[in-house]
């Protein structure tokens, strides 16, 4: 009968629907362009717009104005075309209904699209759709879908909905299809099994939608509850899941696609788009002077240990946390030194993100044990206590497991009562006569056959039941029932079970609900390393990708040469990574490190200066017991870049409460016994508004405040130790500068080269501070312009003429053109460019002394005809600093080879080569070994620093010295070897060979004397003045003569002056006047001695 009713209902609904749609009502999606307000009069336009925003992922403000404008019409057209629908009906109302459903859902769950596409939801659909009925709940309308998406367990009050006769045919169809052992048979049971956000009427509305689907497509409800359909949905979730949440026609079209696809080829799995990577994983698109790369031992440890995250997992796998942040803190503490920041941030997103991957549910052990004191739970505690320690991935699973255990226990108890009642009634039954039908009139009275004895329920039976069955509801049900005589006691028992089954079920349900209400408070959420979270972490590319990497072998040895290296940009560091030794036996044509390892190393080594805009504490830069720059050939310059962040921040903020204070930062000092020219690094000229046009992008100089802070101590420290000072500027986007911007840049650059006041105030402290550099200049010796992206060859994509114009503009505006020079720094690639490619040819106007190469040859002048004065006046670029890539054994030779292929000839080439200073890192040289020939010694200890020693000799032979970025720190492990190598091959001695016996003690004297030469000079001048006055006065006073000559004060004084001049001459190789004065004083002293001798011979001793 139920089947017939369902068929008739479906038939008449289809007739009604089909009859209600006239043929002319069909419309196309293009009609939305002319849609009028009358068509949407019955719709809430704000809800419609909310649905359009969510479905189309369009945040256009015009979709929030509550008006049917052109944007809203266009969006309706897009939705109409995007979401297929099935069934007869006009497109306009169908699309408006679809948008309204999406909008209603957005009002209930704003982020429904993100939630339905989350991996957790997709996993539920693909793994347990038949059990959870998730697809059915999502398709049943906004109210039920909202409950499914948010995991709410609230149940609508369906008690007042009436019986089946008051429910619409479509809703009744759905209820008939859903009724059964799993959800129950009654309306209230089904209502309780399907939580909803709303009222009982909303529940009926959901049932009505499901019924309409089943009436339109037979088996729709069964399909929605099938595991196969759940898997199919997750094969293309980005398209199918939003459609599942749409209107009835949209869901029907989706179900039709599923049916059609059963006979076609498998669908290509379309997983949802992954979440955006954290900012730390993004490549730096805008570089800066304060962004650099430094590879440390910690980075190497992280790179070699990042395949072993299991140790970090082991440390927290048994731990439970009250918040996701606490779990992340514990994981971070164990992973910090193992993974790079990018991977850490990805793991953090998995831990604290909206997917709730680490959240699990369990029952509180102490609270559960306290339940045993509640009398109503005494009987179920044996099945509840085993759940202590069990962790469920979601609350529903845990509660379902608890409820199933409690239900089983309660069912056993109540079924035992049913059996007691059945046994009691059957045992208390008494014999009764059989019950026969009345013989119809006219039927003969035949002899009855022998019938078996019958037993039945009598008053005695009722008394037995009343005294034995303690369950009042059971007694009442049995008392109100009628029994037929039975031939066997088992028949009576069956009747009792049948009578008591619904009563027992109600009692079971009521008792289970009551007990679960008492148990519910002990259910608690916890955060831990769940299996799902662990699997997702292990699936990250930076974790799983390295495990099977064939280049990830013996990294600790192969990458040890990188420990300590620092580079100003990623290209140079990447070249160093590509220069590490290969895995033994690997393909010689393959890179030594995989792209994944290179990317990880880059991420680990990436640095960005903290507090870059805060004031810094500068002071004297010289290292303790540091003498002056040693005497070296002109081709043995040691250049160092001093980043401003080597100075500590002034007034650093105190540590957070509960944290230990970090070590007090100190100013990084410079060994001027090594460095002969020091460049202040960190200022850059860049666009304040890079996206603007030429009038609004605003070329600006940043970090100039750091130079103003450092200028006095920086210049004075270097000059006191006979080192030169440059100011370096990073030039960003220089090839795009206009003529006006070039002029602005030149003005800003040369402004930083102005002299400062030697004595800023007349205080004693400032006067004393000025004395050590009293005879030195108070301005920098030059400027170094760092040109990013110059390729070293004739370019078509960069405006090389701009480089020439910038250098000339700066050179023309130098405040002290006689004493200040312009240097350029370049970082073009050498390793990837063949040696036959010429280099620097297009910069000949800047690099050659005097006029350009073409002008020289055109005028018929021979090379080298310019005088020194003429050269100094016309030379534009003094030094060319080139950041050298690794392996330097190749790049240095390739640089020289490319110079040989350039347009320069003879002395021109020599002039440019002797202007080039290769720049290398100050550390990381110990394990860079010189290339060995067959038969060479391969003892590792003997090979340490061999490549650096070879490089130093090559640089001095072919170029103009060596540069370091940054300047070597006193704490660098390589500084002693670097200093010894430079001293051995480059340093010269200012002492005549005849005096070599006093060289060692004289070196100690010079270490103090040279930086303090101003004091010695002033002392020598004062002593000389005293001797001169004493000598002059001795001609007029016998007493003074006695003091001056007979007691020898003049001789002692002159000797002391000569000794001080000798010290100045020997210790300060840049000084020229001490030797001249010393010779003059010796001559004057000889004349005085001669004159006195003649006077004594002629006149006798003075009276």
From TrEMBL:
Q: Which UniProt keywords apply?
A: Membrane, Signal, Transmembrane, Transmembrane helix
- What residues form the membrane-spanning segments? 1014-1036, 1043-1064, 1076-1094
Signal sequence region: 1-27
What protein name applies here?
Peptidoglycan binding-like domain-containing protein
Q: From which organism does this entry originate?
A: Roseobacter insulae
